[in-house]
């Protein structure tokens, strides 16, 4: 019996899911997985096929969910429905924080004070077909729709199999999806199924304020997180020219990297934004009149089809430009100080730039591989830090072992890393998308726009065809965390690689306190559109030709 098909039913289901305050890393992120398992276990299909519904543990105790519905014809072809159930925090809601996970109540409360809201938000409230709340858009509406598709699969609507995969931690490290890869591989073998495509349902993202387009996607943008470890030369504050302050070093790096137009990439109408810093601080633990020894800055760098060599070259160019500015600045200030200070000796201010791989090899040459392994294993056994801080600590340890190379800047990479992926030119996906666009135009008078890259980052990055010809190893060799408690699963990704697409609901303002979902398209039109997409994916699979 179907329970999640009408607009009202889907809205109620969404609200029940949103009420689980599944902020990434919270206990509610565990509870929501159990809730999803519970509501699916009430279905007669899963009562008869209990082994097809499972919760799978992550190393930290969180769990991901899989629910497999096999078609009556017992065919191998399987479409994966991918979603995540974690959300970002709610600090931005201010006095409305207690209502952030209660969409109907929050929407009513906002309506009471609509005159104080931004004009575009007020207009949506007055239109009446919008639901506000954390996760309504990103991406519990997509998950809600996929549960509706699973219900249709149970009723025999699809000529093939449908596998729901819903994961935690998409908003931070994607450890849910990374854990899901071997799970998918295991299911493929034990259930004797073939994955023909993965359909994600992340919400569509506007390309500019007021953008009226309805987007569907055939790929997902890539992201790297480069870090610059600045190892200075400490000094007493009374003798500032006796060293180089790493805070000064990262200030010049910021001038080179922040919003650097050299990193903007354009493919047809797709444009990546320039880099922005996500971490920027010195590493001095306590106050004293000694200058800091080291500082760290990390940048969000998005890409579409650039090679890792090209990205790395641009990063090194920025670092070397910063070095020139640092050296010139210190020289100029020292020259001025020499005019007023007697017996002042001009200091050396040479700054070197290294890749992590270069620093690692230098440390091995000096101390031996066994000693480097011992030190890194010791740090790992005592680890309390997150991925970014622990990556920094591993670099810091090597830099301290080679401190005579200071002052220096060390370029390295930290998780999360999202490969850019695309099925935009895959004839199979092109045919499906053309059918969906035609179907939507004829039935709903809506012109869907097929955009190659979903720009909000998604877990499709770990399962789709990569856009760059670069080997991922070229990046992971400069990732300190690789083989130190983390392994980027390149081989597993290659084994599972499949065509991808993203068809999701309409909303606005993800990760903002005005996050909201449009209900008419999302819960009236989209269920039929998604069902059509699944049918076409199964009917047009190259494996059936």
Automatic annotation (TrEMBL):
InterPro entries listed in its UniProt record: Peptidase_M20 (IPR002933), Peptidase_M20A (IPR050072), Uncharacterised_RocB (IPR012166)
Pfam families the UniProt entry points to: Peptidase_M20
GO molecular function, one term: hydrolase activity
Cross-referenced PANTHER family: ACETYLORNITHINE DEACETYLASE, PROTEIN ROCB
Name of the protein in question: M20/M25/M40 family metallo-hydrolase
